[in-house]
Amino acid sequence: MARLELSNLHAEVADGDEKILEGVDLEVESGEIHALMGPNGSGKSTTAKVIAGHPAYEVTEGEVLLHIEDDEFGEDIEIDEDQRTWNLLDLEPNERAALGIFLGFQYPAEIEGVTMTNFLRTALNAKIEEREELFEEEDGDSDEDEAEDEGFESSPMEGPADEGEIGVAEFQEILQEKMEQLEMDERFAQRYLNAGFSGGEKKQNEVLQAAILEPSIAVLDEIDSGLDIDRLQDVSTGINALPDEQGTGILQITHYQRILDYVEPDHVHVMLDGEIAKSGDASLAEELEDKGYDWVREEVYGTA
Amino acid sequence: MSTQVHANLTEEQVRQISGELDEPEWLTETRLEALDALADLEMPDVIRTPGRDWTNLHELDFESFVDPLNAAEDKDQVGPADAEVLSWAEAVAEHEDLLKEHFGSVVDLQENYLTALSTALFSTGTVVYVPEGVDAEDVTIRTEQNSQSLFNYTLVVTEESSSVTILERQSTGQKQDEQYYSGVVEVVAGENSSVQYGSLQNLSEEAYNFTVKRGDAGTYATIDWIEANIGTQLTKTEVSTELNGESSETQIVGAFYGHNDQHFDLDAKVWHRAEHTTADLVTRGVTDDIARSVYEGVQDVGSEAWDTSSYQRENTLMLSDESEADASPKLIINNHDTEASHSATVGQIDQEDLLYMTSRGVNPRAARNMLVEGFFVPVFEEIAVDELREDLEELIATRLRTRD
């Protein structure tokens, strides 16, 4: 089990003093589906980016904590009692990923010249390697660890630097299986990462990556925007599989009720002006659809 | 630098070089004329903006520096049996008529100070002759410089409907504090012939390098260049094609990676001089540390060049704040029946791209390396010579991995 806890989170744009988050409190647990809704500019995407560690935002107050239980990463990784709560704000984005945080981007980057297969296998191996480092720190002194790191990249015993825990053949199998589940064309695997992908293909690819990296908590930033109905159903199937098959906790950021018909949330949160203004169950999303955000504003602040 | 004839360079030296190669009188005279001309010739053009030359070719006092009688190299010149791949001395002995016809026919040997210097002093070279209808793959020319200065000359002649793939590499064997490599390459592509000329320059980072490579494409001929620059502290190169024959084509693919205080000044030029000609210029490069790159690309469409297609793009990726990259793509059109494009970009690694990769677990250094290698891929994809592409990929990967 894992639990992501945002408490009193304040953030602003790093090269300005524009405040965006003004005290966000939110918890997402393994296996749960949360929908985070709200009008443009309310701070939804910023929340996602701060969780992932985007350098453009500076956290001025509050915490982002990840709580994990001792069996979160299986039998191979032993998690001591003092390693069960992590302050994500102290960690680099890749370290956060190693601890099981995944951000599905609203606008996934197009990376020329790097095939999806190459990238995803590198990411998967890097995640495994980084996780081992994070949880091995207690053993031995740090000099030894460093020597080990260097050895890994160049040692002929370990093979070339681009080999890793998961070899090419094994990875191909994993990739093929996940792509079939998502009904993705296998040719995607050899295409450059998102380069020339349609909007829908990019979103599908985000879900595929989540399926392969098996995150503890996945934050999906407007994964539904710009999707036609067929693609929306495919993507939704992929999202539902994350909690069902891997126990992933989902924080789904969306403008629209539409996707919530396919990915039914356990909890719905409404964000206004950088805070969670109202939380409820799935019926809250339907109510929002009817009454709009001003209704929440009025109800919470007594003004529209 | 001053361009008066220096006491270091004498007619006797030139005669000695020519004599040792057993050259006929007309060649000796050509060299002596080039020596004479030094006094009046200027350095190759570099781009100038007020107050600044983009490349300073005056750092080295060439005349006092060069040591033409002590040239030393390790050379391989290999090719298939049905094409002739000859050393300069062999070519002089066996193909004087060929040399008489083509030597200096594409590159003006007195075009500037450095070409004239090369003409007067070259002591080594290669002549590749491909007879009619012959397809010659895998011609390799490897030059390892072991002396303070080395002047190299290459001539490629392809007869009708023949083809050749040439891979040329330059490297440094015995390194010195300062070294100078100079190369002139002329390609004469006969009717309906095809020349692919790949060059991988990986000289010592103390070396200076001046090269000009120019081709004359006949009717329906194709000349494709690959120009890769990794080594030297200062490189000034021109790679160019004159599309003189109807329906001739050229492609110029460039790749460079400068770090430390390396300086690359790279020109890619094409002259459309006949109907239905096509040119495609693609260069990508990286600058790091305090390295500097200057790129000048010229597409010159002549008034007789009806139905021209001409495309040019150049992209430079800067890995450090202190490196510099300038690009000047130029398009000169004197015939309206032309489809053309030209573009150049200079940028740094996109932080959003980097975050996308690190957020999936890849560490920042590995992510950057993947982005840089990925940046070169569109150029790699244009390199049809596998060996050259693999060597270049390896050199780039190695350089990236030595970086923090």
What does the model show?
The complex is a heterodimer of chains A (304) and B (404). Chain A has nine helices and ten strands. Chain A is an alpha/beta fold and 304 residues long. Chain A has one domain (2-301): P-loop containing nucleotide triphosphate hydrolases (Rossmann fold), CATH 3.40.50. In chain A, helix 6 runs parallel beside helix 7 (229-246). The longest helix of chain A has 21 residues, at 116-136. Chain A is globular. Mean pLDDT of chain A is 88; it is low at 140-161. Chain B has one domain (11-349). Chain B has a nine-stranded mixed sheet with strand order 3-6-8-10-12-14-16-18-20, with helices on one face. In chain B, strands 4-5-7-9-11-13-15-17-19 form a nine-stranded mixed sheet. The longest helix of chain B is centred in the C-terminal third of the chain and has 17 residues, at 364-380. At the A-B interface, helix 2, strand 6 and helix 3 of A face helix 7 and helix 8 of B.
Main sheet of chain B: which strands, in order across?
3-6-8-10-12-14-16-18-20
Task: Compute the number of strand runs of chain A.
Answer: 10
Classify the beta-strand content of chain B into a percent band: 35-45%
Model regions low in confidence, pLDDT < 50 over at least 5 residues of chain B: 1-5
| Secondary-structure class of chain B | alpha/beta
Order of helices and strands of chain A: EEEHEEHEHHHHEHEEEHH
Ranges of chain A with pLDDT <50 over ≥5 residues?
Answer: 140-161
**Overall mean confidence score, pLDDT of chain B:** 94
Number of helices of chain B: 9
Organism (chain B): Natrialba taiwanensis DSM 12281
Family (chain B): Belongs to the iron-sulfur cluster assembly SufBD family.
Protein name (chain B): SufBD protein
Domain SUF system FeS cluster assembly SufBD N-terminal (chain B): 75-137
